[in-house]
Design brief:
The complex is a heterodimer of chains A (963) and B (404). Chain A has 963 residues and is of the alpha/beta class. Chain A has 24 helices and 14 strands. A 6-stranded antiparallel sheet of chain A has the order 2-1-4-5-6-7. Chain A has a 5-stranded parallel sheet with strand order 8-12-13-3-14. In chain B, helix 1 packs parallel to helix 2 and helix 8 packs antiparallel against helix 10. The N and C termini of chain B lie far apart (78 Å). In chain B, strands 4-3-2-1-11-12 form a 6-stranded mixed sheet. In chain B, strands 5-6-7-8-10-9 form a 6-stranded mixed sheet, with no helix packed on it. In chain B, strands 13-14-15 form a 3-stranded parallel sheet. Classes of the chains: A alpha/beta (963), B alpha/beta (404). At the A-B interface, helix 3, helix 6, helix 7, helix 20 and helix 21 of A face helix 1, helix 2, helix 8, helix 9 and helix 10 of B.
Chain lengths: 963, 404
């Protein structure tokens, strides 16, 4: 028996520093409302099982005023003896310390041991109850009440039974043995279906091999069919060929038949051609022979005619000289032309010479024109020219003199213009005075400086130049004149300057001297000029005179020259007159004139010689002509003669040739005739041979034989052609001897066979294609893999569902079994106890509390009548409940010897029943401590004072234990 | 003697479905579905680029009867490509694609050596180096007897000896035991390299000589977490160099989120997004189990008004459409303390459940597990399942009892 011996509160709810010492058995905690009864009750519970955590809904009794929270419980434990449990504020459930009798100190785990592993809830469900639980009974359904009763003392059973139901339901939703709707059933079906699909798919896959096999078989079959088709094709071809060959074969047969008829016929090769050729030739030769004979006759006749040989010789001789003849003719013509030309020319010459009359001409022609004459003429001509030349020269000189004279006149005039001016004359007049003065000065000066006089050389040069000038003028040499003049002028100027330079001034004297000297210079210059002018004038005059003399001389010379010219002309004309040339002939033509005359004479000579030549030629011609005429024995004109001659000769010659040829021909004809004859003989013999070869005598027979032979040949060739065709067609002669109809039938049958084969092939191909596609599809199909995956997925889901179901099922079963055990094992024992207690509490009115067939509690009164719980009064129900608890506790006496903690559960009891209750409590109190909390003083009278704790007084008497 | 280089891979399980996923959007579904191909393509790509001397595929190319034609076709095409690049492939068939299967077999090109049911040797000459590769293919679905005795002990000391074995170590019972062997048995053979297959978890059983499970190339359910791939092995008489090459197109991963001091929904969402973003950067496309840790009284309230499923939905919505995909497969809450105080009644319920043995559990659940139609489709109950189930039931009780 586990007893609480002392309660020591440090601070809990309204209580603070309270110590309550308890006895074994029953202790009544009495107090009015708000006295703190429940606080003490909770204190005990919380000390044992911990302060409520935040999540728990129970009230927390942490003191509002005091800082202390917690307390101690001293308990007497059947195993551990007296122990103290202290719990103070700390972690959520409080810090607990357990002190054992032997000094061991422990914590939660030790406490759990002390409490037999009971949790607060289990403890409360059995050992702690209040009116609340009892009051609820009324509202509970029958079933619940049953559970409650069943589980009284094991709270949570009702939850458990609820849970069981829930789990059952949920498990049922997941799976039912026979159901279709629950998830697992559905899933199972689904998975099965999937499996079936997979199986199906698998079987499809299994067909893969079949298909492969089938494909192979098909290939094989196809190959067979193809070979069959090939054979058929060959057969067909063979038959077709046969069909084609059929007419040939027939023909062949026919020909062979015919050939037999002509077998004996013989004929030489190319018989006809040879024969006809021979015949042809023979005919030809015969004709030729005839012809030749005729010709021969003709020629013989021709040869009778003769030809005059002599005439031919003459004529040919003459003809040979035809060239000469022609030459003569041409020559004659030429000469005549020449003659005419010469006459023309002579005429022209005379016309040129102006000689018209015939006599004069003749005379002119007689005149000598020798070189001597010509020389003479030339001399006279040159004389005349010379005279004229001289005359011309003199005239030119005269003209020049005229010009010179003009120049002089001009010069003179110029000089006069240049004569001294009046001023100069004046200076010159004064000069002598000044000259004296100057000489005085000069004297003075010459003492100071021996002045060099202008060198004599210069003066000499001056003189020379002067002279040269003069000479120039004299000699009319202008160059010399100019040089002389310029030189002298230079020298004069030089002298002038030199003199000026030498004027040496000396102050006044010098000044004067200079002036004087200047004057002197001027005077001297003027003087010099005057002198010079005079000289020049003199000189010019002299020259003029000279020129005038020359002029006179020239005029004389001219006169003489003119005279000579006249004479010469005279003689020349005289000379010309000798040649009958009259009139004035220009001088230039004169030299040619002579030549003309000479030309005319020459031409006259030529004319004479030509004329003689012409005469000779003409004579020859006539002779020639006569000869020809003689030969021709006919008169022909000059022009025709040779033509006739030629023609006649040609005719004669031709005749001669023809007869010659005829002779030759005759000889050749004779040989030819012989040849032809021999040919004819040979041909005839050959023909006979041919006849022999063909075994005939006549031509007709020969031809007939030939025709027969031809026929035979033709047949043979055709047979050969047919045979070769047949050979090329590869027809077997022997076996192909079937008739047309059979062949056609055969072909038809074969055609059908071929059609069938083709159809079979097509079918096979189609099948193969289909199979191939199916096979490929199978190969590439992911469906199977996907199905497998899906299957696995579904299985997983299923497994999960099964897990859920199994969990729920297990839980439900466990709950069910627990409850069942309670009912089946604990209940009978509990029920016995309950009956006793219930009987006691009800004062024997009710006898039994039992469980009916449906598993519900029912009561049975002493008379055996059974009542359902709901039919009972409130108090009876409560009594039943209490009975249950008590009985339950009784069964747990050793395994859970905890005290009962009751919170005023008997308020509904009447006195009688309360007495009974008290009696029971007292009985129980021997086995188990009871802490009874009440606010009803009615209860107090049943208990002794030391069993009562006045809670209300506790607050006042702190730390004082009730006694 | 020159070193040889080869790729060692196993358990391709091409086109095999992913287990335990549902509710994926279309594009994620697709990505997941093609992930085995994608992973395999990566290998082939690398092989073509880097031209190893040969490839070893140690069993389970396909996933048993469920193999799709497409898987086989793609495998064949890959082999053709390798053929074009003159890369030999030595492959053995495992329990999933044993030789006895009735399925269609695709003819593989001549560069592929398919090991027969009897243990045999493939001899290659690589740059003058003799390489002997021993192995066998599963003749049946189940080969439970040890095959190791059929492997010859290496004799030729100039050659490089490689053993291919699809099976499990005798002590490892986590997988179905096939062709069991012990490490010592393998070492006795004196091979230079043991290329193992069958176990999907990458393991190096022994360092020298290497005994290697490369793991599968792409994880296919939540138990196969982390990056998957194959080994790029360079081997000579004296040295070995193993390089793990990741191939996973989709990575399974667990992401933990510390929920301390999380008050508001936004904060939690943000934390989730950050964690997932990090995961995405780290692993690319992935399927994630999101664990919320350290949920205290404050954060607990976040889950009082919205169920875990609602939260999962919200997180998925936030992640939807972001590339590469990061599919949150599951959201797990780790509550720091059990908040519910059990009563005697609930406790007795819980005690009861704990007292149940397996047969009792099975009896309880027989209703479903004996269901005629469904039984085949339901995973059989294991002890672990029952434990989980009990745990879940207890949690459910605690959760539900408070709501009643």
């Amino acid at each position: 028996m586990l007893t609480i011996q002392k309660i020591q509160i440090y601070g809990f709810g309204k209580h603070e520093n309270i110590t309550i010492t308890l006895h074994e058995g029953v202790t009544i905690f009495y107090g009015m409302n708000e006295a703190g009864k429940t606080t003490i009750q909770q204190f005990i519970l919380q000390m044992l099982f911990g302060f409520p955590t935040r999540q728990q809904t129970q009230r927390k009794y942490e003191p509002k005023v005091s800082t202390k929270f917690g307390g101690q419980l001293t308990i007497g434990h059947p195993t551990y003896g007296q122990c103290t449990i202290e719990r103070i504020k700390g972690k959520a459930t409080g810090d607990v310390t357990v002190y054992l009798e032997d000094g061991t100190i422990g914590h939660e785990e030790l406490l759990a041991k002390l409490l037999y592993g009971y949790s607060k809830a289990s403890f409360e469900s059995i050992f702690s109850f209040s009116l609340h639980e009892l009051q609820g009974i009324e509202k509970m359904s029958e079933e619940e009440l049953t559970h409650l009763l069943l589980a009284s003392g094991t709270t949570g059973i009702q939850q458990l039974s609820f849970l069981e139901k829930k789990m059952d339901k949920e498990a049922g939703e997941l799976f039912k043995k026979t159901g279709k709707v629950p998830l697992i059933n559905q899933k199972l079906e689904h998975v099965k279906k999937l499996e079936r699909t997979i199986k199906q798919e698998q079987s499809t896959i299994q067909t893969f091999e079949d298909k492969l096999l089938q494909l192979q078989q098909l290939d094989q079959r196809l190959e067979e069919l193809y070979s069959q088709q090939k054979t058929q094709q060959q057969n067909w071809q063979r038959l077709t060929i046969l069909q084609q060959a059929m007419p040939l074969l027939k023909q062949q047969k026919a020909f062979e038949q015919t050939r037999k008829n002509y077998e004996h016929v013989q004929f030489p090769p190319e018989g006809i051609r040879r024969y006809e050729q021979l015949k042809d030739r023979l005919l030809h030769e015969t004709l030729q022979l005839q012809q030749l004979n005729e010709q021969y006759q003709e020629l013989q006749n021709k040869l009778q005619l003769t030809v005059d040989e002599q005439a031919i010789t003459d004529m040919s001789r003459l003809l040979n000289r035809e060239a000469t003849w022609n030459q003569l003719v041409v020559k004659e013509q030429n000469l005549m032309d020449e003659l005419y030309l010469i006459e023309q020319e002579i005429e022209a010459q005379f016309r040129l010479l102006g000689v018209q009359e015939k006599t004069a001409q003749d005379i002119l022609l007689e005149e000598t024109v020798s070189l001597q004459q010509e020389e003479q003429f030339q001399q006279q001509l040159s004389l005349l020219e010379e005279a004229e030349e001289e005359l011309k020269f003199h005239l030119r000189s005269l003209e020049q003199l005229h010009a010179e004279l003009d120049t002089f006149a001009q010069l003179k005039q110029q000089l006069q213009q240049e004569s001294l001016s009046t001023e100069e004359e004046h200076i010159l007049a004064q000069w002598p005075q000044r000259k004296r003065k100057l000489e005085q000065l000069r004297f003075g000066r010459s003492q100071r400086s021996k002045q060099q006089q202008p060198s004599i050389v210069i003066f000499i040069v001056l003189a020379i130049s002067m002279l040269s000038f003069i000479y120039g003028v004299m000699e009319k040499n202008m160059a010399v004149v100019v040089v002389g003049a310029v030189m002298s002028l230079f020298i004069i100027l030089y002298l002038k300057f030199a003199r000026q330079a030498h004027e040496a001034p000396s102050k006044q004297q010098y000044q004067q001297l200079r002036e004087l000297e200047q004057e002197e210079n001027v005077a001297q210059a003027i003087l010099l000029k005057k002198q010079k002018l005079e000289d020049r004038l003199l000189h010019v005059n002299e020259q003029q005179q000279e020129k005038e003399r020359q002029y006179v001389k020239l005029e004389y010379k001219i006169q003489r020259a003119e005279q000579v010219s006249e004479e010469t002309t005279q003689s020349l004309q005289h000379f010309l007159r000798r040649y009958r040339i009259e009139g004035n002939i220009p001088k230039t033509l004169l030299p040619e004139l002579f030549m003309r005359i000479r030309g005319a004479q020459e031409l006259a000579a030529k004319k004479r010689s030509t004329f003689t030549l012409l005469q000779t030629v003409q004579a020859e011609k006539i002779e020639f002509l006569e000869q020809a005429q003689r030969v021709l024995q006919a008169e022909y004109s000059e022009q025709e003669i040779f033509m006739h001659l030629r023609n006649t000769l040609l005719t004669l010659q031709q005749e001669q040739q023809i007869s010659q040829q005829a002779k030759e021909q005759l000889t050749s004809l004779q040989t030819k005739i012989q040849g032809v004859q021999s040919h004819i003989d040979s041909y005839e013999s050959e023909i006979t041979q041919l006849y022999n070869a063909a075994n005939v005598q006549t031509e007709k027979a020969y031809y007939e034989t030939h025709e027969q032979f031809e026929q035979q040949q033709k047949i043979t060739t055709e047979l050969q052609a047919i045979q070769s065709q047949l050979a090329s067609l590869n027809v077997d002669n022997e076996q192909s001897l079937i008739d047309d109809k059979q062949l056609k039938e055969k072909l038809l049958a074969l055609e059908e066979e071929r059609g069938a084969t083709q159809e079979a092939i097509d079918q096979c191909l189609e099948q193969r294609a289909t199979l191939q596609i199916q096979k490929d599809n199978l190969l590439n199909d992911e469906k199977y893999g996907q199905l497998l995956q899906q299957f696995e997925e579904e299985k997983s889901v299923l497994q999960q569902l099964i897990g859920q179901w199994a969990t729920k099922k297990a839980l439900a079963t466990a709950i069910h079994e627990t409850l069942f055990r309670l009912r089946e094992e604990k209940l009978p024992y509990v029920l016995t106890e309950v009956n006793a207690l219930f009987n006691l509490l009800t004062g024997g009115r009710y006898d039994k509390l039992l469980i009916n067939d449906e598993g519900y509690f029912v009561t049975q009164d002493v008379s055996g009548v059974r009542y359902q719980m709901a039919e009972l009064s409130q108090a009876t129900k409560e009594q039943a409940y209490i009975s249950l608890r008590m009985a339950l506790a009784k069964t747990l006496t050793t395994s859970a010897p905890f005290p009962f903690i009751m919170d005023d559960p008997f308020v509904h009891f009447d006195r009688n029943r309360t007495d009974k209750m008290v009696q029971l409590m007292k009985e129980v109190g021997y086995e188990r401590q009871i802490l009874y909390f009440t606010c009803h003083d009615g209860m107090l009278e049943h208990w002794q004072k030391d069993q009562i704790v006045n809670v209300g007084a506790l607050a006042n008497e702190r730390g004082v234990a009730s006694t | 003697m020159s070193a040889i280089r080869f790729f060692h891979m196993a358990d391709l399980h091409l086109d095999s479905p992913f287990k335990g996923l549902f509710g994926l959007p279309e594009q994620n579904f697709k990505k997941i579905r093609t992930s085995t191909f994608e992973a395999f393509d990566k290998i082939i790509q690398k092989a073509i680029q880097e031209k190893p001397d040969f490839l070893l595929i140690v069993g389970d190319i396909y996933d048993g009867e469920n193999r799709s034609l497409q898987a086989q076709r793609r495998f064949q095409e890959a082999m053709e490509r390798l053929f074009q690049h003159n890369i030999p492939v030595i492959l053995s068939y495992g329990n999933h694609d044993h030789l006895n299967g009735a399925w269609t077999r695709f003819a593989l090109p001549s560069n592929v050596y398919e090991l027969p049911a009897e243990t045999s040797v493939v001899q290659l000459k690589i740059r003058g180096q003799q390489v002997n590769i021993y192995g066998f293919s599963y003749s049946d679905r189940h080969i439970t007897k040890s095959m190791i005795d059929s492997y010859p002990i290496a004799q030729d000391e100039h050659a490089i000896h490689i053993g291919m074995l699809h099976g499990s170590e005798a002590s490892d019972t986590s997988h179905a035991v096939y062709a069991p062997f012990t490490k010592d048995q393998l070492l006795e053979k004196n091979y230079h390299y043991w290329a193992l297959g069958h176990i999907h978890k990458r393991q190096l059983l022994h360092q020298n000589p290497p005994i290697v499970y490369p793991g599968n190339i792409q994880s296919r359910h939540r138990k196969e977490q982390g990056i998957k791939g194959f080994y790029d092995v360079t081997l000579s008489q004296t040295s070995t160099d193993l390089e793990f090459v990741p191939t996973s197109a989709v990575v399974y991963n667990t992401v933990e989120i510390d929920c301390t001091n999380v008050f508001h929904a936004n904060e939690l969402l943000k934390k989730c997004e950050e964690a997932l973003m990090f995961n995405r950067q780290e692993y690319g496309a992935s399927v994630v189990e999101l664990h919320l840790k350290n949920i205290d009284e404050q954060s607990q309230s976040l889950f009082e008004h919205a169920t875990v499923d609602a939260w999962l939905e919200t997180i998925r919505e936030a992640e939807d459409g972001i590339e590469p995909m990061c599919w949150v497969q599951k959201l797990v809450l780790h509550q720091s303390s059990v908040l519910y105080e059990h009563t005697a009644a609930t406790e007795s319920v819980m005690n009861l459940m704990e007292q149940w043995d397996i047969s009792e559990w099975k009896d309880i659940l027989k209703e479903l597990y004996q269901h005629a139609g469904g039984a085949r489709l339901i995973e059989p109950l294991t002890e672990q399942d029952i434990k989980n189930l009990m745990h879940n039931a207890q949690e459910l009780l605690a959760e539900e009892i408070q709501r009643v």
